[in-house]
Automatic annotation (TrEMBL):
Annotated organism of origin: Charadrius vociferus
Keywords assigned by UniProt, alphabetized: Acyltransferase, Endoplasmic reticulum, Lipid biosynthesis, Lipid metabolism, Membrane, Transferase, Transmembrane, Transmembrane helix
GO CC terms in record: endoplasmic reticulum membrane
Membrane disposition: Multi-pass membrane protein
GO BP terms in the entry: diacylglycerol biosynthetic process; triglyceride biosynthetic process
GO molecular function list: 2-acylglycerol O-acyltransferase activity; diacylglycerol O-acyltransferase activity
Keyword Lipid biosynthesis annotated: yes
Keyword Cytoplasm: no
InterPro entries attached to this UniProt entry: DAGAT
Family named by the database record: Belongs to the diacylglycerol acyltransferase family.
EC number: 2.3.1.-
Annotated compartments: Endoplasmic reticulum membrane
The protein, known as: Acyltransferase
Pfam families xrefs: DAGAT (PF03982)
């Protein structure tokens, strides 16, 4: 099941679609620096009080990213995100019902370069999340680093993003009233280094922290596979063992974020640039995997649930790959 949207295809609408994607891409690439620079620069102008008051607010509100964030529905419903949805386009596909009395932990795969599918589907209402899953409030985890940047932190929280730490996850999953969904891009920044068209490699073999978290809270696990997520950008060759890959890993260890050298098309030409290709993304939400609650699960219990999750994710991929033009002989590879 999915929500159908009328396609937008006039020249003006296509330009607006491109503009919406450009602002999104460059918000990832430069918004953090701009926000930091503006915050500091204001201290040296007659508007210094703005930064001073914000600094006080920032201190008071410092725990909010780990306490469920602060979503703003007006921003989640902005027309900008609908234009961005139609640029690719992005479609959210439902395969099973979710009980609004229950909380859920969703694993999103693959990361891709900029996780466009995760952002549009869970941080906006452009793809109709609330229509497909009534009574469920989505949250998407993001590196805690980004919530330390003035002004940007509030922008991120407005869409439902929360910090990626155990305290933040527990806050969402232990809400007794239910109706909360926490999405984790399991492969994380490291998986982005392998994101290129046609890739079905997932960094998941030894990633078991999210499974342990689900067991500790008795929260059902829901596998998600986003077909087309890796097809939006090309990436400079960086095979394991190469000097570039070693440099990227070193920078990731220092900064906590990966730096894939990606490229695709330009704004006014199609041969080279940082704007993603117009290629469809189909984000398929699988069925919940029941998890028995145990406060201190053993390694064996974690491994059993983790293996079950891998099996269900493979099953989800195999059942839907033909619909989304994935060759029959291509299968998921876990590393």
């Amino acid at each position: 099941m999915k929500v159908e949207f009328a396609p937008l295809s006039t020249p003006l609408q296509r330009r607006l679609q491109t503009a919406s994607v450009v602002q999104w891409v460059f918000s990832f690439l430069g918004l953090a620096q701009c926000c930091t620079a503006a915050f500091i620069a204001l201290f040296f102008t007659r508007f210094w009080l703005i930064s001073a008051l914000y600094a006080a607010w920032w201190f008071i509100d410092r725990e909010k990213p780990s306490k469920g964030g602060r979503r703003i529905n007006a921003l989640r419903n902005s027309i900008v995100w609908r234009y961005m949805r139609d640029y690719f386009p992005i479609t959210l596909v439902k395969t099973a019902e979710l009980d609004p009395r229950q909380n859920y932990l969703m694993g999103f795969h693959p990361h891709g370069v900029l996780a466009a599918g995760a952002f549009i589907n869970f941080c906006t209402e452009a793809s109709g999340f609330s229509t497909l899953f009534p009574g469920i409030t989505p949250h998407l985890m993001m590196l805690s680093l980004w919530f330390r940047i003035p002004f940007l932190r509030d922008y991120l929280m407005s869409g439902g993003l929360v910090s990626s730490d155990k305290e933040s996850a527990s806050y969402v999953l232990q809400k007794p009233e239910g109706g909360n969904m926490l999405a984790i891009i399991v492969g994380g920044a490291q998986e982005a280094l392998d994101a290129r068209p046609g890739s079905c490699t997932l960094l998941l073999k030894n990633r078991k922290g999210f499974v342990r978290l689900a067991i500790q809270h008795g929260t059902p696990l829901v596998p998600i596979f986003s077909f087309g997520e890796n097809d939006l950008f090309e990436q400079v060759r960086n095979p394991k063992g190469s000097w570039l890959r070693q440099l990227q890993h070193r920078l990731q260890q220092i900064m906590g974020i990966s730096l894939p050298l990606f490229h695709a098309r330009g704004i006014f030409q199609y041969s080279f640039g940082l704007v993603p290709y117009r290629r469809p993304i189909y984000t398929v939400v699988g069925k919940p995997i029941p998890v028995q609650r145990k406060k201190r699960p053993s390694e064996e219990e974690v491994d059993q649930v983790h293996q079950k999750y891998l099996n269900e994710l493979c099953k989800l991929f195999e059942e839907h790959k033909a619909k989304y033009n994935i060759p029959e002989d291509r299968h998921l590879e876990f590393i």
